[in-house]
Amino acid sequence: MATSRIMSRRDLDFLLYEWLDAEALTRRPRYAEHDRGTFDAVLDLSEQLATDFFAPLNQSTDAAEPYVGDDGRVVLPPEVARALAAYTGSGLPASVFDHELGGLQLPFVVHQAGSAFFQAAAIGVFAYPFLAEGNANLLVAHGTPDQVRRYAAPVVEGRWYGTMALSEPQAGSSLGDITTRAVRQDDGSYRLTGTKMWISGGDHELGENIVHLVLARTPGAAPGVKGISLFIVPKHLVHDDGSVGERNDVALVGLNHKMGYRATTNTLLNLGEGLTTPGGTPGAVGHLVGEEGRGLTYMFHMMNEARVSVGAGAVALGYTGYLHALDYARVRTQGRALQDKDPAAPPVVLTAHPDVRRMLLAQKSYVEGGLALILFCAHLVDESRTAPDPDDARRAERLLGLLTPIAKSWPSQWCLAANDLAIQVHGGYGYTRDYPVEQFYRDNRLNPIHEGTHGIQALDLLGRKVVEGDGAALRLLGDRLRATTRAATGAGGDAASYAAQLDRTWDDVLRVTGVLWAKGDPALALANASLYLEALGHVVVAWLWLEQLLAVGGRSGGFYDGKRAAVRYFYAFELPRTGPQLALLESLDTTTLDLDPDVL
Amino acid sequence: MATSRIMSRRDLDFLLYEWLDAEALTRRPRYAEHDRGTFDAVLDLSEQLATDFFAPLNQSTDAAEPYVGDDGRVVLPPEVARALAAYTGSGLPASVFDHELGGLQLPFVVHQAGSAFFQAAAIGVFAYPFLAEGNANLLVAHGTPDQVRRYAAPVVEGRWYGTMALSEPQAGSSLGDITTRAVRQDDGSYRLTGTKMWISGGDHELGENIVHLVLARTPGAAPGVKGISLFIVPKHLVHDDGSVGERNDVALVGLNHKMGYRATTNTLLNLGEGLTTPGGTPGAVGHLVGEEGRGLTYMFHMMNEARVSVGAGAVALGYTGYLHALDYARVRTQGRALQDKDPAAPPVVLTAHPDVRRMLLAQKSYVEGGLALILFCAHLVDESRTAPDPDDARRAERLLGLLTPIAKSWPSQWCLAANDLAIQVHGGYGYTRDYPVEQFYRDNRLNPIHEGTHGIQALDLLGRKVVEGDGAALRLLGDRLRATTRAATGAGGDAASYAAQLDRTWDDVLRVTGVLWAKGDPALALANASLYLEALGHVVVAWLWLEQLLAVGGRSGGFYDGKRAAVRYFYAFELPRTGPQLALLESLDTTTLDLDPDVL
Fold first, then answer.
1. What band does B340 get if pLDDT is binned at 50, 70 and 90?
2. What is the pLDDT of residues A238-286, one digit of tens each?
3. A58 with A49: CB under 8 angstroms?
4. Do residue A579 and residue B584 have CB atoms under 8 angstroms apart?
5. How far apart are CA A108 and CA A113, in angstroms?
6. Per residue in A322-334, is it b (16+ CB within 10 Å) or e — as a string?
7. Which of A63, A468, B418, B435 is buried most deeply by CB count within 10 Å?
8. Can you list the residues of chain A whose pLDDT is less than 50?
9. Taking the complete model, does pTM exceed 0.95, yes or no?
């Protein structure tokens, strides 16, 4: 089959229209101005812009890393600004926002599908509008109308950018330990002092301003996460009429030099360093969002979408790597078939070798399975916002909460594994910078770390999401999964046998979950939470592969046969991996708990 | 425990002396001049030189990649030459060679242990002497006395370097398809024309000369591997008195730009390009090694050692990454214990978190297990050469042949996984080039590719080594493994329960191997050979962990407790992974065979 070298539009269409019935969303008031035609136009436009403006600079922006010039400003290759101007000019930064803010009110699932082209083409460049969107999204949800007008609207228009400034050098996974201080002033504003680390897009000259959303502590606030508030800290102060004024006291201390994702500046920022002294008072000017002490609550409110989008980036990198490996394997010749003993016969293409096919099928099952997971979750975001029945909306939100750590972690692990296999298919060539797959592998290695590491996601899943509401979310997932296996059993054939395998594994998951929490001891229950995350991730993706198989039905053609091959692979090679993981969890193994780290 | 930041000398001592009884080798004639004192001196010297001269340039040589200067010569940072001068000055290049060649006649296992320090410190720099040693080794085994004197002796002295020039742009895994031509001249020499790709150390100015060992075809030779001959092609021609003469027609076409391993030049070379025309006749001057048509046989004769050494490099990179992660996890604080609800309590070190302990234990089990595998195989090399009983020597060689694809592949997979975990333990810091672990990960990614990919190793294991002699090698392995489980059963306690688990798994391996070959159909038997390689690798390492536990015995102390913890981890978390793999193999799954690649 012909494939796009960036993403498979055919697969996106299948998942959106033949499986998720995204078109049905247009019957809801929020999306009533849309139809399949406007959805398709967004996908067409995204593919075209990503192909024309983003893909060509992926390797060059990796090689020419951003640096700080003599004037203290960040220098990026000029083609980055050109690509972002094309993106802004298209109106896509406004995709998900309300009409009244100049937005397009696109369903999140369609936006996510379109964004995949940009993430696949040049994820380090697309990170700038990606971060800005998340920033504006949070302000729209929790800011005052004036804050939205002043700080979010220019971001939606694509004129400004934005960041999430959470981490500090000593506090990444443990945000309760941040020490940046925010002191209230007589005029209601705050002055912030402190140091923020790992701030992606924390400085650059791509727009007129950068809106930092900063977590900080007010004097006398409670220790831990309950004493944290959220502040708007613009790089340049903003006048009442929305125009950009003098520089705020947000100083770029340095850029982090990363293994990949290099087009994205990643910064160490000092607030209140004395770079400027706005109004004569020391500290960076900040404006409280919502109420004091609720900063993390606001942040977590947007966390589902942010984490699903990180997973989407991991999928996009894995997916484009797979397409590159496939293109290569179809034309590169090497060796002979095992049964062919004639050394004078011409060599065969790589796809003739079973082990290469295994590596391609594995990649396909990871990246198409991952894409299904991401779009399913993105669709749940839309459901949670627009389902006509409020109970449906609440169920969607609850299921989304359970699936979020998986949507973030599973692609970060397995689509990175796909990138590893894409290198392997290329052999020595894949290890060189003349081919793009090694960059995908380096870029994707970020995803298991940022927005909460695997270990953090595992604790979120098994320590919170699985237990809250007495297991309500897991029951919702079980209901959906069982509905799928019932339908698959009815369909008979391979689908029925996959359904039986999945039903047995789900029984195991439920039993193991019960055993883990039987004693109510978090230390014991969570000792091997990472394995639980991995196992449940494979089960969820197996379920979604069965969903895809049902959507395929009896249709003929190479595309559908490819889906059949991938689901066969996943149930034969992948789902069984969960067996030993679940058995270990059920044994309440205490190897890690018993370990005295001094003996390492 | 205090740890070296490069390698653990304590672990090397344990494996060499408390487990393998390397000292006993000194009772054999070849090693009679050695004792524990000289072995220790080699390890001391290696650690010191690696620490003082190699480790300091690892990051700088990664950042400042070799390039071709205006004069066409390769430019490397000057500190590379200084480090190699220190290595050469120490006499270590002569470690394994015969006294009559100026060698030290060290056991290979001791040499391998010492080399681990250099591989861990700066593998891309150590590659130059590493490649030279392999080159000289092959010449010593198959060259004429004059060839050895003229081309190998200067390499043993450390004055010259050497390469293995096998691959071509169109032929990597499939060497039968090489097309470089070698035409015999009246004086008995040959003239070679062709293009060689991926030649590590293929050009540089580090020594007075570079001896290329080149595979090529003579006119009228048989197609495939039987028509390939081996030639000495020096960069500079060599006079009868051994002095270096005019330039041979070996032209550097370009350097490959790699993801890692950057200090090592990797080259595209043209032979007979017309760079020079030695004696007026076109083509690069070459000298036949041995007989025409036996080039690959000679090459494969040295393959066991070369592949074990590649595995050793993978282990060293994984090992040093583990030590760095451990050092970091012991001092970096983050978060609180799960049961601690007081946000005002001080944060704990990373090793207090079970998931971090899991990641450290996993690394420990991979790198110490991998080191045991490598040293066991290196010891078999010594056994195969010096065992007093010729039957013992033959058995050692046969067992080594079986274990070689595992010794090459298992560390390439799992010590790379260790590097991945070392990054994860570091969090965001691990993704930056300010910490060394991301480089280890990039460097180590080469190892699953060169010296035969995973897929090639898998076919070698299941298609050749397992079946030859009617399964004689697998029986040898089984005898050794069963002897270990018998001893462990006798020891009782945990050792006995691990033994029972390993015995059951070995029964599975034998049964599955029989099923795979029951129909004698290579296509069916080898369809999933990579899974067989992975599963048998885990079984072998589990066996060697049990061997280590027996060597630990009842001894007390942190070091021994660490071994106990790692073996416990390996049997609980790792060995069970083989269950689904062996089950899939036993099912004779044809997913990859049935696949029509057009549907991908």
1. confident
2. 999 999 999 999 999 999 999 999 999 999 999 998 888 888 889 999 9
3. no
4. no
5. 8
6. bbbbbebbeebeb
7. B418
8. 1-4
9. yes
In chain B, what percentage of residues exceed pLDDT 90?
Answer: 95
CA dist., res. A570 & res. A552, Å (int):
16
Contacts of B142 (CB under 8 A, 6+ apart): B230, B289, B290, B298, B301
Q: What is the structure's pLDDT at A2?
A: 39
Residue A73 DSSP SS3 = coil
Q: What is the pLDDT of residues B206-263, one digit of tens each?
A: 999 999 999 999 999 999 999 999 999 999 999 999 999 999 999 999 999 999 999 9
Contact A527 B354 (CB under 8 A): yes
CA distance B438 to chain A (A): 7
Average pLDDT value for chain B: 96
- A579 and B579: CB-CB below 8 Å? yes
Residue type, A100: E
CB contact under 8 A, A428 and B197: yes
Mean pLDDT value of segment B489-516: 98
Rounded distance between C-alpha atoms, residue B82 and residue B481, angstroms: 46
For chain A, the first-to-last Cα distance in angstroms comes to 52
- Chain A residues touching residue B222 (CB < 8 angstroms): 343
Amino acid found at A382: D
**What φ, ψ does residue B60 adopt, rounded to 5°?**
-70, -35
DSSP 8-class letter at A183 = E
Amino acid, res. A437: V
- In A139-177, which positions are buried (b, 16+ CB within 10 angstroms) versus exposed (e)? bbebbeeebbebbbbbbbbbebbbbbbbbbeebbbbbbb
pLDDT on residue B277: 82
Q: What is the pLDDT of residue A339?
A: 76
Q: Give the C-alpha separation, A72 to A229, whole Å.
A: 30
Distance from CA of A400 to the nearest CA of B (A): 25
CB B445 within 8 A of CB A431: yes
- Are the beta carbons of B285 and B89 closer than 8 angstroms? no
Give the three-state DSSP class for A75.
strand
The β-bridge partners of B266 are B200
Higher pLDDT, B1 or B566: B566
- DSSP of A502-565, one letter per residue? HHHHHHHHHHHHHHHHTT--HHHHHTTHHHHHHHHHHHHHHHHHHHHHHHHTT--SHHHHHHHH
Give the pLDDT of residue A1.
38
* pLDDT tier, B342 (very low <50, low <70, confident <90, very high otherwise): confident
Q: Is B577 on the interface with A (CB under 8 A)?
A: yes
Say whether B159 sits in a helix, a strand or coil.
coil
Q: Which helix (H) or strand (E) holds B136?
A: helix B108-142
Nearest Cα residue to A89 out of A158, A154, A139: A158
A332 touches chain B (CB under 8 A): no
ipTM confidence score: 0.97
Mutual orientation of helices A468-491 and A493-517 as an angle, nearest 10°?
160
Task: Please give the sequence-ordered ranges of beta strands (E in DSSP) within B218-297, or none if there are none.
Answer: 228-234, 236-238, 244-247, 250-255, 266-271, 284-289
Dist CA A501 CA A508 (whole Å) = 11
A250-255/A266-271 β-pairing: antiparallel
- The stretch B72-99 carries a mean pLDDT of 96
Nearest-angstrom CA–CA distance, A323 and A315? 12
Distance separating alpha carbons of residues B487 and B298, to the nearest angstrom: 39
Q: Within the 245-264 window of chain A, which residues sit less than 8 Å (CB to CB) from chain B?
A: 256-260
pLDDT at B1 over 70: no
C-alpha distances out from residue B534 to A76, B448, B488, B490, B586, Å? 44, 12, 24, 29, 15
- Provide the pLDDT for residue A277: 82
